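ok so I'm stuck.
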Amino acid sequence: MARPTIADIAQRVGVSKGAVSFALNGRPGVSEATRARILEAAREMNWRPHSAARALGGARAEAVGLVIARPASTLGVEPFFAQLLSGLQARLSRQQVAMHLLVVEDSAAEIEVYREWTSAHRVDGFILVDPQVRDPRPAALEELGAPAVVLGGSGGPGPLSSVWADDREAMLSVVDYLAALGHRRIAHVAGLPGFRHTQRRIRALRDSARRLGLTGAVSLPTDYSDAEGAAATRTLLSRGRAGASRPNPRPAARPAARPTAIVYDSDVMALAGLGVAMEMGVRVPDELSVVAFDDSVLTRVTHPAITSLSRDTFALGGQVAEVVLEVIADPGTRRNVKTATPRLVIRGSTAAPH
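replied:
not stuck anymore, here's the structure
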């Protein structure tokens, strides 16, 4: 059926289009009896205001935009994003605000969507995720004058409001724990290298290696997929064993020693790594300790259960939604909200190295 218009309502009620416009917009110029008849007709005809007309009138779209530049295949199996989206939508729904979600190829495509949705008044504001090194997106949103909140970052000064946790502090807590168990060869299967949180975690491991005297700290970037997580694990576990006897050993040619602990930037990759260890006959946790940077039901139902950095991701989504609603209500607002640092939950995948 064709979308009903103001003219259709006017014809049904027997009044002018101007009278219908006055009634629907709550303006004076029609009697209360006529206004009631017009509103009843609009309800019966399931009339809704056109988004373009609402934009011209300065009305809100009652929607928030979230554009994600990550491989769609990894998002489909990522529990972190499922919980985050649930928390976002639960809080937005209390205000009857919708969320428009779109997955794109890269930052250039993401910025183009920002331009299109802003010009068409599709959304009232944006949530930006995965802050990048030399990120062009905050400046683009500031130029558009679009209210926006960044999820992530370091809490430093910037043009947009932010909600963030200290990734460096979280990584330091993991490395300190593993070092206290006696691990000296700790590897890191990291996420995308262009992300700021990936770089902070890599630097935290490197700094800890100098501070604690670790001999084999290394980070391998991936795309967060289980396939690349498994491949990185296979590469690390294929290295030589420290202390293994070799005929006529030549230290310069000796391969790097296999790590005794691996920290994964997502629970999906940690699960993939656990599978590779089983495939290669590497016992967890006797010969290899495994830690996941994200905690979900996946880390708890596997055997052994995986030691993880845990936080309430559903509640995090609610916090981000709260801030973006505040910024939309008052575009001059700048909020910098530091959330609790993820806490380390010890499970069966970590132990002292044998």
